[in-house]
Amino acid sequence: MNMLLLLFTFVLAIFLGFELISKVPSQLHTPLMSGSNAISGISIVGALIAAGRYADSTLGIVLGLVAVICASINVFGGYVVTDRMLSMFKTKEGGK
After folding, report:
1. How far apart are CA 61 and CA 34, in angstroms?
2. CA separation, residue 45 to residues 6, 24, 48, 85 (Å)
3. Does pLDDT of 79 surpass 70?
4. pLDDT at residue 95 greater than cutoff 60
5. Whole-angstrom Cα distance, residue 83 to residue 33?
6. What is the band of 30 on the pLDDT scale with cuts at 50, 70, 90?
7. pLDDT higher than threshold 70 for residue 89
8. By Cβ atoms counted within 10 A, which residue in 7, 56, 68, 92 is the most buried?
9. What is the pLDDT of residues 34-62, one digit of tens each?
10. How far apart are alpha carbons 77 and 29 in whole angstroms?
11. Dist CA 24 CA 20 (whole Å)
């Protein structure tokens, strides 16, 4: 039963994430990345708890590991994109 609940949560998160991001205009993707980093951090904690405490089988542990990896990639990518966005607003040195 726990495995079914974990799988349902995983599929629901994929569906909701896709629907939410597809409805956001492209101009807002970069500013929203900072907020999504915090949400992904919470996802990492949830995936760790799900994989460590509630996974009764190897498949549950593997799915939890995949969730941790995906959320970690999302956090790292969000910081990279935010850094690139902020670097666009820095003034260039050398007076030009």
Report:
1. 29
2. 14, 26, 5, 27
3. yes
4. no
5. 11
6. low
7. yes
8. 68
9. 666 777 778 788 778 877 777 788 887 88
10. 12
11. 7
Distance, CA of 60 to chain centre: 19
The H-assigned helical ranges of the chain are 2-22, 29-49, 58-88
**C-alpha separations of 69 from 28, 63, 64, 87, 90 in Å:** 25, 10, 9, 27, 32
The size of the chain, in residues, is: 96
- Side chain identity at residue 79, one-letter code: Y
How much is the mean pLDDT over the chain? 77
Give a three-class secondary structure readout of 62-79. HHHHHHHHHHHHHHHHHH
